[in-house]
Structures are given as structure tokens and as C-alpha cells.
Design goal:
The chain has 267 residues and is mainly beta. The chain folds into 2 domains: 7-97, Ribonuclease E inhibitor RraA/RraA-like (Glucose Oxidase, domain 1, 3-Layer(bba) Sandwich); 124-266, Outer Surface Protein A, domain 3. It has 2 helices and 20 strands. Strands 5, 8, 9, 10, 11, 12, 13, 14, 15, 16, 17, 18, 19 and 20 form a 14-stranded mixed sheet that branches. The radius of gyration is 21 Å and the shape is elongated.
Length: 267
């Protein structure tokens, strides 16, 4: 079996990757029928859309590309596959890379109160060398609160934040002090995805809000220069409200209005 690791680990060949975990929902060992393949590296919305259609005995193969966030697939989507009569509901491939904690080998761990900032870089107190290592803080009940990685004083690697119950609140991946593409996640207290943002070259490329696993609220996407490309509103996974598109110079291209997924007016 061939699988890939996130790009960041390419900078750290010493980082160890655990074996993939295959989860077969339904306990079936063999399948037959027309095959549908869907690449889903870090978002389950396309999977959900496909599973809302009638399967008629088709086989659905989800290619997660070895990305850890394929854990967003989960049991509710598996059940949707059964209800749409697809013989293979979901086979979930999750590549565990120890959350990139293995970066840099056995790096130094310190609490955040042992670091100071000078000139935009993090240093240990009384040190003249920019900090390289891991910053770890805990809640009063002992649960992990923060875990962030630094290289030469800059955020570099996974940055995680958790609530007092151990649920993730934000997960980012950084390189040389800049967020990488497709690496921002924020969660509700119950663990449901709340916001996902995509970055490219340190610029916010897109941002979308979720509710109960569906797009809900404002979705924005930007050009590579950071200028807004379009913004639209969703309600319960459907277009609802204004949809605006812009040229690279910032001028309005067109504007449409939707209600419950239906186009009702073009400005």
C-alpha cells in the first residue's frame, strides 16, 4: 500500500509515520458493482452530497490522500451510505503521523511562560538563541490546553488548542511563521467542525462556516493576492442570501440573490 504524508513532514525525514488504519463500516469483505471514486483530502462536504443521491448498489471509494483530517468522515456519513444503497459505504484511510509531534526528533518542551518575544521571534528567558522546540500548556484539570511547535523562533509545525474536556478548538499547521494552505480548523464544544480556512503563501484563500456538518453562514474565497474573489451565504447547506463575485482589482463582477438554494434575482 502506498500512502503520502503532509508536505510539512517532507522537511523532516526523521519524523516517524504510523501505519494507516483501515476502517470498514458494515463488516463486509468483498464488494461488486459500478465504482465511484471521490478524492476527499480534508473536507467531507462532497462525500455527503454524493451520499444523498441514490446509490443503486454502487461502490464508493473515498481517497483521503493520507491526510489526518479524513477523520471528519465518521459514522454518520457511513450510515448515509447504507441508506443510499451503496454496497461499500465508506472505507476510511487515516494516516496517523503522530500529529507531527515527531518533528525534530525529541525536541525540547517548555511552558509558554518560559518564552519571551523579541523582534517577532520567540526566545527562552535569558537566551539569545531563537527558540526551537515545543510549547505545551495544560488546563487546571490536567487536560492539554496548547501544543505548538517552533523553529528558529517562528511557528513551524502543528499548533493545537483544546478545551478543558479535551476537545480540539483550533488546529493549524505553520511553516516559517506562516500558515500553510488548508490548515485552519475551529470546532464547537461538541467537537463538530465550526470553521475551516485555507491559506496559500500566508494569505487567507478561503473561509467557510459549518453547522451540523453543513455549510452555514458566510463563505469567502480570495485571489492569490489576498483580494476577495467571491463571498456567499449558506443556510443548512443551501445558498441563501447574496452571492457576490469580484475582479482581481476589487471591482464588483456580479451579484445574485438566493433563497433556500434557488436563484431569485440577479443584480
Amino acid at each position: 500500500m502506498v500512502f503520502t504524508t503532509p508536505d510539512l513532514s517532507d522537511d523532516y525525514p526523521e519524523a516517524k509515520a504510523l501505519s494507516p488504519i483501515l476502517t470498514n463500516f458494515g463488516g463486509r469483505k468483498s464488494f461488486f458493482g459500478p465504482i465511484e471514486t471521490l478524492q476527499c483530502p480534508d473536507d467531507n462536504s462532497f462525500v455527503k452530497k454524493l451520499l444523498n443521491s441514490k446509490g443503486d448498489g454502487k461502490i464508493l471509494v473515498v481517497d483521503a490522500g493520507g491526510i489526518n483530517t479524513v477523520a471528519l468522515l465518521g459514522d454518520m456519513i457511513a450510515e448515509a451510505g447504507f441508506s443510499s444503497q451503496r454496497r461499500l459505504t465508506i472505507k476510511k484511510l487515516t494516516l496517523l503521523i503522530a500529529m507531527l509531534i515527531a518533528i525534530g526528533g525529541c525536541s525540547k518542551e517548555v511552558p509558554s511562560d518560559q518564552l519571551v518575544e523579541r523582534g517577532g521571534l520567540k526566545y527562552e528567558v535569558n537566551s539569545q538563541t531563537p527558540f526551537t522546540g515545543t510549547v505545551v500548556d495544560y488546563h487546571d484539570n490536567g487536560q492539554l490546553e496548547w501544543r505548538t511547535h517552533f523553529k528558529d523562533g517562528k511557528l513551524h509545525g502543528l499548533a493545537e488548542a483544546y478545551d478543558e474536556d479535551g476537545n480540539p478548538t483550533t488546529i493549524d499547521v505553520w511553516k516559517d511563521g506562516k500558515p500553510l494552505k488548508g490548515t485552519f480548523y475551529a470546532y464547537y464544544e461538541n467537537g463538530q467542525l465550526r470553521v475551516k480556512g485555507n491559506y496559500k503563501d500566508g494569505q487567507l484563500e478561503s473561509k467557510v462556516n459549518y453547522k451540523d456538518g453543513e455549510f452555514d453562514g458566510l463563505l469567502e474565497e480570495c485571489y492569490e493576492n489576498g483580494q476577495l474573489f467571491y463571498k456567499t451565504n449558506y443556510k443548512d447547506g443551501e445558498f441563501d442570501g447574496l452571492h457576490e463575485r469580484y475582479y482581481k482589482n476589487g471591482q464588483l463582477w456580479n451579484k445574485e440573490n438566493f433563497k433556500d438554494g434557488n436563484l431569485i434575482f440577479i443584480f
